């Protein structure tokens, strides 16, 4: 009996100990002159005595003054609790900070403290001064309490990306906190929980005293942010305060302020990475831009070298941290599945844009209003989470104005989803194979599209750090933006689906008959030159206004052995000089493109679809010839590959790739 009583007492003492809130004075400072007037202390303590109940009674914020200025004993106090406080917890917090202030600042004229209590759900603020500070922005003194630990080395090795995500988080929190919330007495407050690429959750909280203007609140918080960046950058958290505001961030939820906060993802990559776009408007490469371009290019070069070295060392997929080390500052978004479901209205059928070999594409709208294209990958990419994230991270690094931009991804539950920029005008096949829409495509427009696609492919093959072979280039994988500029979609899928890209031979052929180079379709051998072949087919389709499919229909009436590929159709007429039979009669003539230039296009197309792989030109040569005034002679095309139709069960079997976008 006595024993169990002892245990109970011990347990309840322990409980009591555990329940006692542990207050952490995130910032506490006594300052100003010492006062020698006893009545100053009396005024202050008088105000303190009713302060906790007054704060609660007034909705969380209260200010008051007492004493005579002429007698040098007038004191002004300001106090508040965090928005969403519980009444009792708020009172307890204030009582604690009042006791603390009385004992620590016995005869100082001023003090302020922003207090947090880790075990309970409170943070509160107390300040007293000998002058009225109501409505005034007060920036000094400042108090910084950094977390003593540094960020993990995996993160600190790649501070550029962390920095971008951190800044975006801080900006977002700051913007929200300094927007006055009129429905609350505590006008300026925000708490955010953000998923970074390298860290699951980062917590930030900002608050200003409600007597400020929004602009002053913003300025104060910005100063706190700057304080941290200047003094403690690299630490894994901090609380920074000034008399008018408070900012705290950490890698753990520092109080219940985050209970009801929904996690958001780090922001989409900035458009700053189009640096590799050496497109036609070279004007942009002048003056002050040089520095901006040169620096990332050097970094890219470095990244590229590292990449090559890593590939040599490790032929297979590497861990995410290494991939992140390569990152040169682009951030990538991981989207919540909930967000994707909301944006696409639960993959609503009417939002479906197309269906490709690797999954379906849906249109979506983010809460910000941004339109996106969501590609829901077919199950079984065979990648682990890390590998998937790793690959996507690499693909987001590919940025070119003629490539569809990958904004981020989502892999939650068993979904694997890619999020792309939305390109408004649908895919090229919807234009080129449509009697009406084809008329919109003047020779000018067609030339621009061909050139743009060539640039996108050149970037993938030669300029990007990854050297991607597309493997499924076709009209339906070329999207047109509002100005009819082409953007290549669906690149890098083979990487994502874990197919060996380094050997140049695969047992899994992805692609579309008619577009596939014969050596790829038959033997699974792929190279940049098999993409060149597909490019050639697409180019010829643009010139003829026919697809392989349509051609088949036209030829249906003819004898069986006369069925031919588009390339063969063009080749036969080319060698007989019957150009007019090749060229699309619906293409509106244009002043800028002469018939000679159209003939040049056919010539290039035929060079691309030559049977002899080594004779097919590189994308760089093609672009050189496409430069309108390049007056060079092109090689004479050798015979095109005459593909025999695949038997019903071809081996290896290609993935079905019906008309799709992305
Ligand atoms: C708070 O300060 C303002 C401005 O000095 C003053 O008008 C107001 O009366 C104060 N509130 C209280 C309760 O004293
Ligand atoms: C407050 O104290 C400071 C420094 O002791 C003094 O210079 C100032 O005049 C005081 N302000 C008022 C309003 O009493
Ligand atoms: C955050 O805001 C600052 C100041 O307005 C700005 O200079 C910076 O570019 C912003 N950073 C991000 C990542 O949005
Ligand atoms: C922070 O601001 C965002 C954007 O205004 C808002 O959606 C969110 O509810 C705010 N969070 C808190 C805890 O006030
Ligand atoms: C979270 O939301 C619940 C329900 O609305 C509310 O009762 C609770 O007080 C909130 N918690 C915080 C810390 O705001």
UniProtKB/TrEMBL annotation:
Biased composition (Pro residues): 647-662
Region annotation (Disordered) ranges: 641-662
Record-given protein name: Cysteine-rich receptor-like protein kinase 37
A Pfam match: Stress-antifung
Binding positions for ATP per the UniProt entry: 375
Domain Gnk2-homologous span(s) in chain numbering: 22-133, 148-254
Subcellular location: Membrane
Keyword Hydrolase listed: no
Transmembrane segments annotated in the record for this chain: 290-311
Signal peptide: 1-26
Main localization (coarse): membrane
Gene for this chain: LOC104716962
Membrane topology: Single-pass membrane protein
Keywords, comma-separated and alphabetical: ATP-binding, Glycoprotein, Kinase, Membrane, Nucleotide-binding, Receptor, Repeat, Serine/threonine-protein kinase, Signal, Transferase, Transmembrane, Transmembrane helix
Protein kinase domain mapped to chain residues: 347-632
């Amino acid at each position: 009996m006595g024993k169990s009583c002892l245990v109970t007492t011990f347990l309840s003492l322990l409980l009591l100990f555990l329940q006692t809130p542990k207050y952490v004075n995130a910032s506490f400072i006594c300052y100003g002159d010492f006062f020698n007037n006893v009545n100053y202390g009396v005024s202050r303590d008088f105000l303190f005595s009713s302060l906790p109940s007054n704060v609660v009674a007034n909705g969380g914020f209260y200010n008051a003054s007492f004493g005579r200025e002429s007698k040098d004993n007038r004191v002004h106090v300001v106090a508040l609790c965090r928005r969403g406080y519980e009444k009792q917890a708020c009172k307890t917090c204030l009582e604690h900070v009042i006791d603390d202030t009385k004992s620590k600042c016995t005869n100082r004229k001023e003090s302020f403290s922003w207090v947090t209590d880790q075990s309970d759900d409170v943070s509160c603020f107390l300040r007293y001064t000998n002058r009225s500070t109501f409505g005034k922005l007060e920036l000094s003194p400042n108090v910084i309490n950094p977390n003593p630990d540094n960020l993990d080395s995996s993160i600190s090795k790649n501070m550029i990306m962390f920095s971008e995500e951190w800044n975006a988080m801080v900006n977002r929190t700051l913007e929200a906190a300094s927007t006055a919330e009129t429905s609350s007495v505590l006008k300026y407050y925000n708490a955010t929980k953000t998923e970074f690429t390298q860290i699951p959750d980062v917590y930030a909280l900002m608050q200003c005293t409600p007597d400020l203007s929004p602009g002053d609140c913003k300025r104060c918080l910005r100063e706190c942010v700057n304080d941290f960046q200047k003094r403690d950058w690299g630490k894994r958290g901090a609380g920074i305060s000034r008399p008018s505001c408070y900012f705290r961030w950490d890698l753990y939820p520092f109080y219940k302020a985050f209970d009801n906060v929904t996690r958001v993802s780090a922001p989409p990559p900035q458009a700053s990475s189009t640096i590799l776009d050496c497109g036609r408007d070279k004007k942009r490469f002048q003056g002050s831009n040089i520095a901006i371009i040169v620096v990332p290019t050097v970094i890219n070069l470095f990244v590229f070298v590292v990449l090559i070295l890593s590939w040599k060392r490790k032929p297979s997929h590497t861990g995410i941290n290494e991939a992140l080390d390569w990152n040169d500052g682009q951030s990538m978004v991981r989207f919540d599945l909930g967000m994707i479901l909301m944006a696409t209205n639960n993959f609503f059928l009417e939002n479906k844009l197309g269906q490709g070999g690797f999954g379906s594409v849906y249109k979506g709208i983010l809460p910000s209003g941004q339109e996106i294209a969501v590609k829901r990958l077919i199950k079984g990419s065979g990648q682990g989470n890390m590998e998937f994230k790793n690959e996507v991270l690499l693909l987001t690094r590919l940025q070119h104005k003629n490539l569809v931009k990958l904004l981020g991804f989502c892999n939650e539950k068993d979904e694997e989803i890619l999020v792309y920029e939305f390109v408004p005008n649908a895919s090229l096949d919807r234009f080129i194979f449509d009697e009406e829409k084809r008329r919109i495509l003047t020779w000018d427009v067609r030339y621009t599209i061909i050139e743009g696609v060539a640039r996108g492919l050149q970037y993938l093959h030669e300029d990007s750090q990854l050297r991607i072979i597309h493997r499924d280039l076709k009209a339906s994988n070329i999207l047109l933006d509002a100005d009819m500029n082409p953007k290549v979609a669906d690149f890098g899928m083979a990487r994502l689906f874990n197919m060996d890209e380094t050997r140049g031979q695969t047992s899994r052929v992805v692609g579309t008959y008619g577009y596939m180079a014969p050596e790829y379709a038959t033997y699974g051998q792929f190279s940049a030159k098999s993409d060149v072949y597909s490019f050639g087919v697409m180019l010829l389709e643009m010139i003829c206004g026919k697809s392989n499919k349509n051609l088949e229909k036209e030829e249906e009436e003819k004898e069986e052995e006369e069925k031919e590929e588009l390339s063969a159709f063009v080749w036969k007429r080319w060698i007989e000089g019957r150009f007019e039979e090749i060229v699309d009669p619906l293409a509106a003539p244009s002043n800028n493109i002469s018939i000679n230039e159209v003939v040049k296009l056919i010539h290039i197309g035929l060079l691309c679809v030559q049977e002899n792989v080594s004779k097919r030109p590189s994308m760089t040569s093609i672009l050189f010839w496409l430069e309108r005034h390049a007056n060079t002679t092109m090689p004479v095309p050798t015979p095109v590959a005459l593909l025999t139709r695949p038997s019903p069960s071809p081996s290896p079997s290609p993935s079905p790739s019906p008309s799709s976008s992305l």
